[in-house]
Amino acid sequence: MRLMFLDTPIRPQRSTLTLVAVSSVWMAVLGNWALWKTLMTLPDLTGWHGLGFGVAFAFIIANVVAAVLSLFAWRFTLKPAITLLLLLTALATHYMLMYGIVVDTPMLINVLQTDTREARDQLSWRLLITVLILAVLPIVWVWRQPVIAIPFGKQVLRNVGLLVASLALAFGATQLVFQDFSSLMRNYTEMRYQINPLNSIYAVLDMTVIPAEQPRGPLQSLGLDAHIEQRAGQVPQRPPLLVFVLGETARSASFSLNGYTRSTNPLLAKENVASFTHVSSCGTSTAESLPCMFSHLGRSAFDKRSNEFENMLDVLQHAGYAVLWIDNQSGCKGQCARVPYVNTSDLKLPEYCEDGECRDTVMIARIEAELSKLPAERRARGTVVVMHQMGSHGPAYFKRSPAAFKKFTPECTDTSLSQCDREQIVNAYDNTLVFTDYFLSRVIGWLKTQDKTSTPAMLYVSDHGESLGEKNMYLHGLPYSVAPPEQTTVPLVAWLSPSFEQLSRVNTRCLQANRDKPLSHDNLFHSVLGLMAVKTAAYQRERDFFAACEGR
Ligand SMILES: [Zn+2]
Description:
seven-stranded mixed sheet
């Protein structure tokens, strides 16, 4: 008997051109859903005029994508290249639609530095559906198409032809709508970071092959001349002890200390603290803010720096202080490279930690044990501890506060913020601040117990703020130039024990009187050195916000 085989249906063979054309159009049209949505809300382009512009814009994008793909249009590289671009497009579309973010280099750095714990927070059904429709569907189609094999020389000619033709078409179309196009890009700069998948390609190139505007030389040491100035009120057995709490995603506008109508700081309000109301951050993301916060340069000089420098912690260490970084977040972004460092999730303390995430209070539970490991001769001069909080890290705000601190309900308990009412999102966020308030009051409480053996003080400042639905924006990470104040205005709270006030001659009442003075992360380096009486050429007194309140 003869076995009969059913022939698999013969698929028409496709040329690389067809695959490039179909996937470019797919990405340009469907993969830019977020861009079209933005475009429709703009007052500049409406009706037929707006529609015509939209079609031209999509045509331009499709041709630029085709030009990019022409570089990969070889039999064995084209399908992987298309697959990668489709995935980037789908992921970017999801986050853009969900959180009103854009894809630029800092955002990409942010994503790459996000640890798996945070990434897990962000997984959702919506994400899966978006990736399925925008990427998986066309990917399956692409991989099922047999590609016609043609001689190498002919393929070269064809790819060069595709590159030239698509660039020419893109250029021609841009000329046709040039006026609208250029005014749009000028008025809405952030829109260029919404163009999928070109935004992701640009960000990757910017991070890898495009040389930085000024190549940065090797690490420069800083403050090698630093030493501790002996202060008149110093009791030798009671060295200064400063806890620098590095907050996460706390926005100034949601602090009741700064005028928010909900009571988010009930415990801090009972302490003798100074809370500054107009403090701007250095960046809009952890990765962008942290290196700049600890730098002596200040935001604008930091952006233009030609070298990497040592930071505040190095200078404190050069001066002879004991320095420690306790991290309850995704790391110190290089800021603790040369100082002792402890990561709380490595400690595996079931009382405080679950699923690899610990409550910020774990840092207080561990501090004495960790401090005792520092060199005694340094501790005799004084200590600076950085506590890096998990704080209000989103979008899963509800995971950041224990049940006892859920003062505002109902909370949004979906990791996709768009699944919740704005009110629920704000409730969940405000509860994270209630817990931060408790944490800070516990830090102060612990510092008070140290008063017999040291001279304690606390400084709290957040790395950046957060959008909670204002102008339909969520989360953080917009380019600084277009970021709303919610993302760049951060709380800054100082607590000085009476003995520290005596030692430093800085008066809390004077700080309170100056609380509305505009400050920024630019002040931090100099203010901490000033508070700790570090003398060095790197210190600038005019940037030290404690200096104005000294001896009054
Ligand atoms: Zn952050």
